[in-house]
Structures are given as structure tokens and as C-alpha cells.
Amino acid sequence: MERVRVRFAPSPTGYLHVGGARTALFNWLFARHHGGDFILRIEDTDQVRSTEESVQAILDGMSWLGLDWDEGPGKDGGYGPYFQTGRLDLYKKYAQELLDAGRAYYCYCTPEELDERRKKMQEAGEAPRYDQRCLHLTEEEAEKYRAEGRKPVIRFKAKNSGKTIVDDLVRGKVVFDNEVIDDFVIFKSDGMPTYNFAVVVDDYLMKISHVIRGEDHLSNTPKQIQIYEALGWEVPKFAHISMILGPDRTRLSKRHGATSVMQYKADGYLPEAMVNYLALLGWSYNATDNLFTKDQLVEYFSLDGVSKNPAVFDLAKLQWMNGVYIREASLDRLVELMKPYLLDAGYITEELSQPEEERLRGIVAEMQTRLKTLDEIVELTTYFFKDVEEYEEKALKNLKKEYVPELLERLADIFSTLEPFNQETVEKEFKKLQEEYDLKLGKLIHPVRAALTGRTVSPGIYDTIVLIGQEEVVKRLRAGAQKAKELLAE
After folding, report:
1. Is 254 an annotated catalytic residue?
2. What is the pLDDT of residue 490?
3. From residue 373, how far is each of 26, 121, 189, 385 by CA, in Å?
4. Which of 93, 120, 254, 431 is catalytic?
């Protein structure tokens, strides 16, 4: 096989979204699997919508996912520039070659004229297409249009008979009738190339061997192949991957979770979980496997495993997968990842003392198996950092028992002088009270948990007590005793 060179070529008119990230990943995996090159090219010819913020968002998203590029912004591989706006002279050069060869021509038709003709074709039951009005303009006619202030576009003279065949590596042989391809614009009147022209010039000059992209580009491919052939260039191999649908089988949108990749980072997803999940959107290696390291994905990935059928984006499955990766992550890493969420919530400060750091490690360790996303740490750990302000309904029921006020007061007195205050000593005091009150252990634990957390679920009660801290525990037990008395008095 020739040296594999693939590219991801986003338009910086928004953020890196799920579909774009999946396309980038498939290209990256293909390049890494074959020991080839992965090129990042920014298609920024839409001067109205392209922004520097969007460029940075794309770079940030790629970097977060770990999709490093061999050539592109910041990495010159000898085939740049890697922004299309820096390549305008190249597009003009090859457009002129097509003009000189009679495979392109200037068109002075105004948008209003084109709209009017299109309407007439539709009314006549014909498929709208350019009628080649300007194909055989004389120089006098062209000069007349220029004198009127018209700025021409350049149209490609497409084949109007025969067929253009796409040998797609995912979809097989796809045949297009040339008669349905009209003379499309390759240079706009503002001096910018159109997508179908610029992408051909770039892919050829950058020696792209395989064009791996979404199936929404399949209809563009016959136009691009005709440009390759008109310029006498070798056509790359094409692979059009399936669209991503929402669970309701409609095109993926924001309501399905199709948001910025960096929003998933903000929402508490780990990059390795995101990469693993995106890889499974339209590709499979073994039907029984779902979890892959990045190295395994590189080893296993091939276009043979890419499905023709649409992939379904399932947020619940992504959350499950993320939970698996959280459980497998090192505690040191998780603590650092959790800090921004806890800092934003006001639970911790930027500078933590050594005891505060150790306490935080203990809290994160207790919560590690309970999280599906990192941001859940805020809601799940509220009672470790704040007083109990509300009680769950079931927690109130656990407080509303005759023996509870006395029990909580007794426990508060015991804990106020308990030294050392650790899991072992706390557990011993519970065992003593269990014998004294002649109750099952749960009958002691449930009201204590309610008083300390306001909830019915928490980590083990002894760990919870120690992590909340001695002084705070005593205060909450006394407050819980008072709350229990109020409930019993109602």
C-alpha cells in the first residue's frame, strides 16, 4: 500500500461536534494503524462565519481527545499552508488551468436571474440545473456584463453524459449519472473557491491517499472526481462513513446530546471514554467487546469494520462507559479532575491544607464507584461540605421514632470527646449503643445518616462520619435530635 495520508478538514464556523469528532477519530485511527500521516486542515474560506474562536475550539477539542496531528496548525509538514485562506493563489492557478483547457468558464448570471430560471424549470417539471447560458459568451457580451458591474463566478464544465463511478471502501460501487450534474461553481464572485474545488486541490497537493468523511459528502464525490480527471490527477480512495442518529432514529441534534466536544469535558466525561464511545459509532471489532484502550483501537481499526448503517448516539451508554473509566482511573487523577467542580460549587478553596487535601482524597475515593460523570461529585457530596438544609422524605421517617432524639444526643456527647476520632473508634461506639438499646444496627445507622446527610443513601456510615469531621458531626447530631423532637411533637 502507498503511504497512507488522511486528513480531517473542519470548517471553523462552530465548535467540534460529535459527528466531526467521530470523523476525525476514524481518520486518526486509520493513519495510526497504517503508520501513516494524519493532517489537520482548516477550511476557512467562509469569511462571514469563520472565526478564530471556532478554530481554537476545534484545536482544543482535538487536543482533549488526544487526536494529535502530524501536519497542520503549528506543525508544518511541507504541504502547507494548512488554512485554506493561505492557499488562494493555488486555487486561482488551477482554476486558470481549467479555464485554459476549456473545462471551466466565467458566468455572469445574477442570483436573481438564476432563481427565475430555476422556478421556470420547476414549473415545467424539470430538475433545476444551470442552463449553460454563459458557456459560449463572446468577449463583447462578457465586456458588457463587466461594464454593468457584474462580478463573475467560475463554473466547471461538467460531463453531461455517461456515468461517474465511486469505488467506495465502505459502501462499495456507487454509480452517478453525469446528466444530473450541472455546471457547478468552483470560484465565487468574492474571489473564494467553493468547497468542491478547494478540497480537490488541497487533497491532491497534500498527497491525501484516503478521503474518509461522512456520507453526507457522497453526493459531492462525482463532482470532485470529475475535477480530478479534468486536471489529470490521480483520484484518492474514498470511504463515506454513516451518519449518526439520535435514539429516535432522526438526525442527531442538540436535543440528543449533539453538542460541542468540549461541553462533554465540562459535563464531566473523560477523554478516553469519549474516544472509546465515538469509535463504536459505526465501527465494530468484536460484537462482545465494548471497552478498548486507544492502543487497542489503533491495532484493531480497519475500514472493513465500518458499517454502512447509521450509528445511534445513546447518551445513557456513553454515561455507563464513562462510569467504567472513572472507576478505573487513579485516585490522584480523579482528585485533580474533581477540584474545578468543587471549587465552582464553593465547597473547597484553591489552596488546600494537607489535612483538607487528605479529606478530599477520602471523599473522592468513597464516591468513585458511584459516579457516571465527574460533575455529579457536586450533588453527591453536598453533605460533606455544607450543613443539612433539607431532608429526604424517607430520611424524615427515620428521624421520627421515639428513641431517636435520645440516641442522637447520646451519640453527640460521646463523639464530642472521642479520641482518636477514626473509623475504628466510631464503630466501637456504635456496637456499644446497639447492645444498650437492643436494636438492630440498621435502626441506629438510619437515623444517624438522616441527621448527618439528610439522605437515606451515603457511603458507609463510619467513613461518612469521619469524613464529615468530629466537630461538624456533633453539631449535626444535636440538630438532628432537635428535628426529631419537632417531628414527634407534630
Report:
1. yes
2. 85
3. 25, 55, 49, 20
4. 254
